[in-house]
Amino acid sequence: MEADLKPLEFEGIRRLLEKLCATPFGADAARNLGPAPSVGVARQLQDAITAARFGLESGEGPVVPELPDIRAAIRQVASPGAALAGTAFRNLALVLRVGKELRPFAEKRPALLPTGPERLDAAADLLPKIDAVLMPNGSVREDGNAALRQLHAELKSERDQIQKSMQSHLGAPGAKLHWSGQRACVHLPDGATDQIRGVRRGTGPGGHGYLVEPMELVASNNRLEKIAGSIEQENQAILRALSDAGRERLSALQHLVESLTWLDLAIAGAQLSIHLHAKAAEMVDEPVLILEEAYHPQLILAYAEKRGPQPKPLTVHINADCPILVVTGPNTGGKSVSLKTVGLLTVMAHCGLHVPVAGRAVVGNFTRIFVDMGDPQSVAFQLSTYSGHVEVLKRLLADADDHTLILLDELGTGTDPEEGAALAMAVLDHLAERGVRGMVTTHLTPLKSFAESHACLRNASMRFDHERLEPTYELEIGVPGRSLGLVIAAKHGLPENLIAKARDYMENLHKHY
Length: 513
Known about the structure:
Helices cover 48% and strands 15% of the residues. By secondary structure, it is α/β, with parallel strands linked by helices. InterPro entries: DNA_mismatch_repair_MutS_C, DNA_mismatch_repair_MutS_core, DNA_mismatch_repair_MutS_sf, MutS, MutS2, P-loop_NTPase.
């Protein structure tokens, strides 16, 4: 499904999911989440989130711990001849263990991972190979193989002999043994009399004093360096062999990351579902939309954090009997929020996320959600507000079909009201002929009577409390709204005589038109 995500503020949902993810690959998936390629895939993630939520609420899990990012290591190990660093293998081992631990959860609840639990530990036989040759810090074990055991024994013996030979040079005041790499030196303080016959090796630690390598130890130090070089070559051979083993399991490693990404996203989606008191929508092939007692996610969270008022539920039915809703009513009455709620929840359902509704939630297989909200004027392209709306309508009319959901805010505005209303009627006629579904908001009075008599349009309005002179933010289908501009102006303190004169002018306008 294609969708205009920016005006629906879907980025806010992505950010919430990203914060709830435990792994870097899950967080990346949340940042890039979009509508699934098919309703079937959306249902799979819905089911995984449902299973994860059940596990979280029952205390059974699973919980994905924070993990290092191993994707670069997997890309590196894919290159023939590569020798992955030991620390990278230790990170890989950590992820392999987590995959192994998660398999029983996926076996118990198959919906958690539709690709199958076996993908979580298909490369787990790499673990004993890593543990056999690497220390917990990632360095190669001294007993990693027979050659290394021999080389490290030789290195230790040679160092012991050198340290014994060095004792005769450490009697001078301030003289200390210092290892510069594999070379044993004497560290003498500044100003010390150089009584040692040897090779100067630069300054001491921190730039204090100087280092002298006694001449009789040069050959021994050379042997030490040669042994150390042989050890490093053997270490690299071991890391290369381990990398070859990883390359043989490359597909399994990639599947492990994909599976952990899916699980992390599903668990994050489950946590979001709990926060929003959400549920899985019923996904159907027909272009219908039923949202009963639905809420905008951000309004729920703002209320929970005491940053906003308690949101009012929204109920919308869009189907063959009521293809397009024409929503009217006063400014600040919640028309735009209603559009955004419908659009955002539809996109969330197509992404596989749960939606915050207290009643039914049925979302059809819309191939496109077309959104026109706000002011589309562009200084760069010299477009006025009206011209911007016209450009949007051109794209809509070129692509819309019977599986398109439209959400148009203030249709027909930006030009003369009569011309705007006429254009809006023609557009709605054209869209209705194509079987388009959706909601449009407007202030234009002629559209109310047009919707009343049109077979494919249905009036709706945002309720207004006339006693308190306040909007209720509740959608009422079947009843056209009133703009109530003069009522609201009076409430906000415009002079009574000015309001009275405006009413007189309005009556005269009605007589002429």
